[in-house]
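Q: what sequence does this backbone want?
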């Protein structure tokens, strides 16, 4: 039984080589990528903050504890 060869030609190996090379480059020098992304990301974050500032506070986020009690009965902690 003969197994087929895996990526026998250079042209078939090229995409994998480019992927590994780009992962290595951006892994060692991530600033090459982040410097390109930062200006547009700041614009998107600024737009999102403007939308959140214009919204009214959500009523279901306001709550109070009416009868606060300790989570653990202190009598169980100090058994005499």
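A:
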């Amino acid at each position: 039984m003969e197994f087929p060869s895996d990526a026998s030609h250079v042209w078939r190996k090229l995409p994998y080589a480019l992927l590994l090379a780009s992962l290595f480059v951006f892994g060692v020098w991530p600033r090459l990528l982040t410097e390109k992304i930062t200006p547009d990301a700041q614009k998107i974050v600024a737009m999102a903050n403007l939308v959140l500032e214009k919204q009214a506070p959500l009523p279901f986020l306001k709550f109070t504890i009416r009868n606060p009690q300790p989570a653990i009965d202190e009598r169980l902690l100090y058994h005499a």
